[in-house]
Amino acid sequence: MIQMIGNIAAVLTTVSFVPDAIKVVRTKDVSGINPIMYTLFVSGVFLWLVYAIATNQPSLLGANGVTFFFSSITLFYKYKLDVIPKLLGKKSS
Question: Considering its fold, how many domains does the chain have in total?
């Protein structure tokens, strides 16, 4: 029962990043994305991946792998379309 609760929690939190990633890719609108929060979050998820590998926990690896993938897409677009252009003095998209 406890394992099932953990699996359901992993699926729900992982799937929650899919709509934003799809929306960002389709619209290229990253105005609502905070780059500091997303950088910290993606870094934290990466560390969870390292932990899952080191402790041989496939459930953690799967859930955090998918979360890392989709949240990294959003972060990539934020930097590409907004953060880097501002640093270079160019108008963002």
Answer: 1
